Amino acid sequence: MTTDIKNARIAFLGLGIMGSGMAGRLLDAGARLTVFNRSLERTAPLASRGAIVAATPRDAVAGADIVFSMVADDTASHDIWAASDPVVIAVDPHKASWTAAAVDSALRPLATIRVPVSHAGYQQLRRFAARWPTAVWAIEGAGGLGAPLASRLSDAGIAAVDVPAKLATRVRMLSTGHGRKNDDADALSVGIAAHSAPGLRSAVVEDAVIVLRALVEHRDEVVHTRTQTVNRLHVLLTQLLPGGAPRQLDADTAPARAGHARCAGWPPSSSPRFATWIGASPPPPPTSAPPSPTAPPP
Fold this sequence. Notes:
Layout: E1 9-13, H1 17-28, E2 32-36, H2 44-47, E3 52-53, H3 57-61, E4 66-69, H4 74-82, E5 88-93, E6 97-103, E7 109-116, H5 119-129, E8 136-140, H6 147-155, E9 160-163, H7 165-173, H8 183-196, H9 207-240, H10 253-259, H11 272-277
Parallel strand pairs: 1-2, 1-4, 2-3, 5-8, 8-9
Antiparallel strand pairs: 5-6, 6-7
């Protein structure tokens, strides 16, 4: 019986010198390749060519038609396959803290820890996880609040699974605790989701994605500020002008329109307080007196 390589789903475990070369040839032949390696950096060249990076050997071989294992010796092979059903270090990230739970294959929490988001907190989290050497990391929202931790783990060559927030919430709501929300319960829900849900993608943090996300957030803040300012201008000009101002309004044209209004006791549009309130900059004071005209010679 022969298998069409282009239609086969192939899993490749172990990306050393020989394994990387063989996996590369499979990609050249058009195979749909999923790879796993204990050191994450070895997967990057193949991932850039279209290979899927699995966080665990179990994820790599799930649904595969052919499985290759290319490791150094029996000990390495035992370590890889022993890690097929490992403890999961599940992390519920927040802006100021990381809460982690070690969850075994029976979906029971073995231990929990809460650390601050800092270098010291990261080191404390690594020491906590060192109690389970073959553990797999799972982070809720690795592209959002979990990005700082995912980036640190990636720099250290540690793979992590990205658990979508909606999936963790669904697990928590269906739990026997009636969906009670706290950091320990959230971390446990992340671990249960990582054990139970097949096909979770690896947490890959790219610098370009981080920069683009920061730019989008900044743009949203600027748009919000502008909208708030324009709304304030409309409220003010409704009191000053009959019928208010047209919809197309900005902070530059508003002072000019307000300058035509004449309301008793209302400060003029050139007043610094007035101009600042409506969002425009007050006219700067003159830096020096204009030169006096020179009298013509007799």
